[in-house]
Design a protein that fits this description.
Blueprint lengths: L19 E5 L4 E4 L13 E5 L7 H17 L1 H9 L5 E5 L2 E5 L1
Antiparallel strand pairs: 1-2, 3-5, 4-5
């Protein structure tokens, strides 16, 4: 051996440390995981908006990217104030529309 070794693979996380799927449907999934350190409620909302015809042309994709940039710019001041309180959000284009995370 030349002394180079890969680090060991960590064991899988126990079930109590993984999110629990509470509700599962085609258009809606709800997961729950309690904050272990501070025992406070947390929320992570992710919404995907599907826009028909998104992949029809490069123009549609460029318009969606511009829409997301304009929304992010318009919300910049409000989002900054929220980020000071350790709250985050994002709005970004996807191949089928756009996604929002709060």
């Amino acid at each position: 051996e030349d002394g180079a070794a890969f680090p060991p693979i960590p064991p899988a996380a126990p079930a109590s440390r993984l999110p629990l799927l509470v509700h599962d449907e085609k258009s809606f999934k709800l997961w729950h995981l309690q904050d272990r350190k501070f025992k406070r409620p947390l929320a992570d909302l992710r919404i995907r908006f599907l826009c028909e015809g998104m992949n029809d042309s490069a123009l549609n994709q460029a318009c969606m990217a511009l829409f997301c940039k304009l929304c992010n710019d318009a919300l910049a001041e409000t989002c900054y104030l929220a980020s000071v309180c350790e709250l985050g959000s994002s709005l970004y284009p996807t191949d089928s529309g756009f996604s929002m995370r709060v």
